[in-house]
Amino acid sequence: MSAFTVLIPARLSSSRLPEKALADIHGKPMVVRVAEQAAKSAAERVVVATDHADIEAACRAHGIASVMTAATHESGTTRLAEAAAKLGLPPDTVVVNVQGDEPLINPQLIDRTAALLVKNQVPMATAAHPIRDLAEFLNPNCVKVVLNAAGNALYFSRAPIPYPRDAMAASPQALPAGFSPLRHIGIYAYRAGFLQQYAGLSASPHETDESLEQLRVLWHGHPIAVEITETVPAAGVDTAEDLARVRSVFHEYA
User: Could you read off the pLDDT of 217-227 as tens digits, one per residue?
Assistant: First the structure.
C-alpha cells in the first residue's frame, strides 16, 4: 500500500455538543481517541488540525501530533488544506480526512479509502455502505450517494436517491427486494495538491442547498471514487446521547 497521512480536523466550537473534541472517553479526550484509532491504520503519520490551544494541549499531553489552523474555516476540508500546507506535504501525498468525532472509526476503512484513491487515480475518494432500512433511506440526516458505471459518485443528497418510483408506489412500507441504495460515510482521501485546489474552488449552489461540501468537487467536474463496504460503521458523536453510547461500547472497538 502507498504511504499516506491521516489528518483529523478538530475545532473546539460545536453547537450540539459544546467542546466535544475534548469530551472524556474513558480517561482521554475524544480527539485523542480518534487519533489513536486512526494510528491503527497503515498511515505513516497522524496529525490533528485544530483551531484551539486547548485541543493542541490535549494532543501534546498524550503524544499526538497537531498543527494549529485558523478559526475561520467553514469546512474541515479547507482546514486540512491549511494544515497540509503548514506541514509542507508534497502535492502527491495521499491524505485521509478522518473526522474528529469518529472515535470508533474502522482502521481498515481508512486503509481501503486511501488505496482506492491510488488505484483509481482520482483526486478524491470516499466510502459508502448499503442501506437496508426504509426509515434510514428517507431520513435527511442520512446522506445518500449514487454511482456511475466506474464506481464514481454521480451525486450526493439528503433526499432518498435513487428513488424506485413504481416499487415504492406499490409497497411504500419497505424498501423493494434487491434495491440497495447507498449511505455515504464521511471519510475522504485526497492528494495534498488537490486539497490546495479545493480551497480555491467556488462554492456550488447544490453544496449550499444540501449543506454537503463534497458537492463542490462534483460541481467543478472532478471525480470522487467511492469505496463500498458491507459493514455498517459505528456512528460518530454529535450529541450527548451519542457520546454516552460511544462510551458504553468503546472497549469493543479499542
Answer: 999 999 999 99
